[in-house]
Amino acid sequence: MPKKRAKRPDGDARVTRNVKRNRWEAKLTIGRDEDGRLVRKLYTGRTQKEVADKIDDARKELAAGVDLVTAASTVKEYLDQWLTEVLPGTVSAGTLKNYSEVAKYWIIPQIGDVKLAELTPGHVERMLRALAADGKSTNTQRLARSVLRRALRRAQQQGVLSRNVAQIADGVKVSKKKEGRALSIEQARTLLDHIASSDNRRIKRLETAWLTALSLGLRRGELLGLRWDDLELGGDTPVLRVRYALKRETGRGLVIEAPKTADSRRTLNLPTRLAHRLTAHRTAQHAERMAAGPAWELLPLGHDLVFRTEFGKAIDADNFRNCTYQVTEAAIHEKWSPHELRHSAASILLAQGVPLEVVSETLGHSSIRITKDVYGHLMPAARKQAADAMDDALFGGA
Fold first, then answer.
1. Beta-carbon neighbour count of residue 166 at 10 Å?
2. How far is CA 85 from CA 78, 89, 95, 157, in A?
3. Between β-strands 245-249 and 253-257, what pairing exists: parallel, antiparallel or unpaired?
4. H or E stretch covering 275
5. Residue 275, Cβ neighbours under 10 Å: how many?
6. Which residue, of 41, 99, 195, 321, has the fewest CB within 10 Å?
7. How far apart are alpha carbons 97 and 101 in whole angstroms?
8. Helix H or strand E segment including 150
């Protein structure tokens, strides 16, 4: 074994040769642990220069404020700390549960043992390839990368890392996105006519809910979390404000909370006929309240909801989905989900020549790129309209 060298005042040991292990090595004091004790990290390499370069790089990171003590932990150790100490209180319980499962099942098994400071874009890319080889969908792969990117962004902000390797890594390679189903205008009218003529009380009670979903493209939770205070039905320009969404959370049941993103909170102009139908729906709901008497729940989940059960309770999202399956199968001989009604609303808007940016705002997408990726195949008519307009403007229609 090589003779021990005297340590420098700054905590460094000289680069020395470890004959037994056939390598060069040196230690550097990188900070203190939670108990205030000095933490020294061993750097090794095949050459003396390689180790010296590592020491120099570490010193630069320390000078830049990088927390090398935390960086010395594994990805698993860091993610566990992030999920239990950082995220709670900043995201919904459902989001926290989702992130925890992504980390547990998809990230940690692949790269959990890698030191945080040694994590590279290559590790992230190999993780994504491993998930793909295991049959995981592209959405699963993108979600794993997204959760890791968010966790490492926090580490970067706190000076633990100098770069976010999950952001630098190549993204998930996907084939052309499968186009979702959308009702044609004729199918949408057939569905609404079927509902209007139905003598099934359960279906008739939800008629205005389905009309609202098809007219505005609301998400299921947004529709069922809609409150009367969110509507302005009088005046020349009736509006609907998306402020809350109904969801089911483990351990809490049904809850109503504000949407996760600012783009989801939006104000929409109401079609005049829809405003009239909502006004009639409020009158019908008042009659149900009188009929139910004391059994009527005044503020389900603490809110004066627009769409309720016959006793004033919030409508379970799964029950609404199943009812949507039943009514669409009866009307147009296929089961369609509430999400597909939202998709249909966007398709109908684009077919009517509504600009893509307006459709994006209506749907509450975080960017117009998302809308374009999903609905770009529906825009040939709009592109032809633009070409015809240019013909008229520059060439006089010739």
1. 24
2. 10, 9, 15, 16
3. antiparallel
4. helix 272-292
5. 20
6. 321
7. 6
8. helix 138-157
Start-to-end CA distance of the chain, whole Å, equals 91
SS (H, E, C) 194-263: HHHHCCCHHHHHCHHHHHHHHHHCCCHHHHHCCEHHHEECCCCCCEEEECCEEEEECCCEEEEECCCCHH
Whole-number Å distance between alpha carbons of 327 and 244:
26
**Which residue, among 251, 277, 250, has the nearest Cα to 98 in the 3D structure?**
250
Residues counted in the chain: 398
**Structure letter (DSSP) for residue 82:** I
Query: DSSP alpha helices (H): ranges in 84-137?
Result: 93-102, 108-111, 121-133
Spell out the long-range contacts of 99-108 with Cβ–Cβ below 8 A and sequence spacing 24 or more: 99/147, 99/150, 102/143, 102/144, 102/147, 103/79, 103/147, 103/151, 106/131, 106/136, 106/140, 106/143, 106/144, 107/75, 107/79, 107/144, 107/147, 107/148, 108/75, 108/76, 108/79
The pLDDT of residue 116: 82
Higher pLDDT: 31 or 176? It is 31
Q: How far is CA 329 from CA 149, 195, 393, in A?
A: 42, 12, 47
Exposure letters 227-246 (e unless 16+ CB within 10 A, then b): beebbebeeeebebebbbbb
With beta carbons less than 8 A apart as the criterion, state whether 142 and 172 touch: yes
- State residue 27 phi and psi, 5-degree precision: -120, 150
276 has pLDDT over 90: yes
Whole-angstrom Cα distance, residue 253 to residue 251? 6
- Cα dihedral angle (152, 155, 160, 165), rounded to 10 degrees? 20
**pLDDT greater at residue 242 or residue 383:** 242
96-121 pLDDT per residue, tens = 888 999 999 899 999 999 988 788 99
Identify the sign of the CA torsion 323, 327, 332, 334: positive
Neighbour-count burial for 144-161, b at 16+ CB within 10 Å, e otherwise: bbebbbbbbeebbeebbb
Instruction: Copy the structure tokens of residue 69.
Output: 């003590």
Cα 1 from Cα 13, distance rounded (Å): 15
Q: Which two tokens mark 312?
A: 């004033």
